[in-house]
Amino acid sequence: MRDLFDKIYRDKGPLGKWAAHAEGYFVFPKLEGEISNRMKFQGKEVVTWSINDYLGLANHPEVRKVDAEAGAAYGSAYPMGARMMSGHTDLHETLQNELAAFVKKEAAYLLNFGYQGMVSTIDALVSKDDIIVYDVDAHACIIDGVRLHMGKRFTYKHNDVESLEKNLERATKMAEQTGGGILVISEGVFGMRGEQGRLKEIVELKKKYNFRFFVDDAHGFGTLGATGAGAGEEQGVQDGIDVYFATFAKSMASTGAFIAADKEIIDYLKYNLRSQMFAKSLQMQLVVGALKRLDMLRTMPELKQNLWKIVDALQTGLKDRGFDIGTTQSCVTPVYLKGSIPEAMALVKDLRENYGIFCSIVVYPVIPKGLILLRMIPTATHTLEDVSVTLDAFDAIRTRLENGTYKRLSAAVTAAMEK
Ligand SMILES: Cc1ncc(COP(=O)(O)O)c(C=O)c1O
Fold first, then answer.
1. Closest ligand 1 atom to the C-alpha of 247?
2. Which residue of 56, 185, 365, 370 pairs with 134 in a disulfide if CB–CB is 3.0 to 4.6 A?
3. Which of 45, 15, 16 is nearest to 31 (CA)?
4. pTM here?
5. CA pair distance 288, 94, nearest whole angstrom
6. How far apart (Å, rounded) are the C-alpha atoms in residues 106 and 239?
7. C-alpha 63 chain-centroid distance
8. Average pLDDT, whole number, for the chain?
9. How far apart, in Å, are the Cα atoms of 42 and each of 25, 29, 31, 352?
């Protein structure tokens, strides 16, 4: 028999194996200073394109004031206990009602974290006779929720409605045998590449197939739709979404999340969501802070306008300069370049050290081998000057990537990794 830890000593996992070369710089970097368009990385100012503070609320003076006052009034403990036991308050209810109204659903329920909440909601919505059909590129929280499911599940090709339909046919046949129902899950906006889920076409399929539709709109909430209610509103199909999810970790610049649906469904989830039944209630400071942020989303359309001014300038500028930004239909701005992982590391180092640009880097196995994805999240606090220096920096790094500079610079890393 082996020691359980043997495998850990042997294999650090797909990301962990890079730790010696990457930790503290490419992964677990420390961004310092107030959350904004410019922060400090290793003592130097950088333009930050990797924080999800879409509407610039994280460091907004009114938000900071309310957060501080709520902290002073309630501390970080209140209320103690799970919602069902001793952690329920009027303000939790008020926030739920306001969130439901904002996303045009009958009712809403708070979640402590989006990730856990998604896992738990999927778990609560299905039983073993049901079938889940979900996009193959779904966020980890969807994949992990599906993992808990005891029944059948099918993936469909990313954002491919034909593939979804084929899988719905299979699922329908199977559900007829098991006596269960079908849950389809998509993201409102796919966070890596920025495409919107094809919600309109998926809702249209309800005319032909019997299923319920669950949408994770982490990146759409606050950024898309006339009122900011998200990808469903943007595509005119909010009514066709049976269960709507968004996190506070992006546009709301906080922690927490919620689901919204018909009242009877939320009433059921309230009594069956294990992540809320067996965990402490969302703390009051976050509830009060979320009420303030929601009010600002509702009453300050200029926040979203500022965001989109930056998104348009950045995405148009990149396209005009011949960069491949894929098929984004949202604020998420990917730039695809060709190169190896060591080249990507040298390139990102150059961007940070010599041009003061900080963005996330995504490589194989998250995207195909040989591709480098630089992912930018514009915010309402960025300026056109930030966009301009970023575009110039991207021009310069592309030239160096193409003329082999990064290949030479990364030779030592490549050699070390091949050992
Ligand atoms: C698509 C998507 N769903 C869910 C989550 C998880 O949300 P949270 O950070 O609130 O756990 C994220 C990341 O924040 C996300 O990008």
1. 10
2. 185
3. 45
4. 0.96
5. 10
6. 11
7. 22
8. 96
9. 9, 9, 8, 10
Is residue 378 very low, low, confident or very high in pLDDT (cuts 50, 70, 90)? very high
CA distance 354 to 42: 13
Question: Using CA positions, which residue lies closest to atom 15 of ligand 1?
Answer: 218
Of 54, 8, 107, nearest in space to 307 by CA: 54
- Say how many C-beta atoms besides its own lie within 10 A of residue 378's C-beta: 26
Domains of the chain (ranges; CATH) run 6-54+302-418 (3.90.1150.10), 61-299 (3.40.640.10)
pLDDT at residue 367, as a whole number: 84
Q: Which residues line ligand 1 (CB under 6 A)?
A: 113-115, 118, 139, 141, 187, 191, 216, 218, 247, 249, 257
The CA-based angle 407-413-414, given to 5 degrees, is: 65
Tokens of 413: 């890393």
pLDDT one-digit tens code per residue, 255-310: 999 999 999 999 999 999 999 999 999 999 999 999 999 999 999 999 999 999 99
Torsion of CA 400, 405, 411, 413, to 10 degrees: -40
